[in-house]
Amino acid sequence: MPDTAALTIGEVINRLRDEFPDVSVSKIRFLESQGLIEPDRSDSGYRQFDVQDVARLRFILQQQRDHFLPLKVIKSKLTLWERGEDVGLAAADPDSDQTSGEPLTREDILKRSGLDDDELDALVDAGVLYYITDSTLFESEMSNAAREAKRLLELGLEPRHLRVVRLSAGREADLIKQLTAPLMRAKNAESQARAQDLLDSSTGSIQALHRALLRADLTKNPGS
What we know:
60% of the residues lie in helices and 2% in strands. By secondary structure, the chain is mainly alpha-helical. It folds into three domains: 9-82, Multidrug-efflux Transporter Regulator, Chain: A, Domain 2, CATH 1.10.1660; 99-153, no CATH class; 158-224, no CATH class. A two-stranded antiparallel ribbon has the order 1-2.
């Protein structure tokens, strides 16, 4: 088949399988659902990939395999890749404080979230925000959580109300950990890469399911 012809998802997999043995239909569909690829569709609805789509997929899979990068970082690199620029350093996400992964102090959380001391203490007491074990520092992602908590407090909720969100997130995290545990116990690079892929895929799907169910519950009985 000439390179200019449209490829089916199966033909794309055949082209990439030697380099990426774990590539699959479900993986490509997941990358599409996350907005990393956008293949055309035939009149009957089947995906149609061109040479650029295959090159884009190869770049994404290389970043996952060689650098164990989460999809959010890869997505930021794609903009540079499309322009032919150096992708060694991804552009920072202005809405995320997880770019460095460094632990944050109490003062960092207060400054980045807009919470005051009493609000932060109340959120910690409610278990919504929490320190690193045996530490006075917070994980970097707590900055994002604190900022969202501040928005909800401004809407009229109280820290004790947000505990249900924390408990739900904990249960979802436990579910994902159970799913990825067998691969995480294997210390070889291939298993670690597959675990990261499974983590990204399952996390995205659970978040999408959570949002869909939340919207469904809110629209089912809007007056209740």
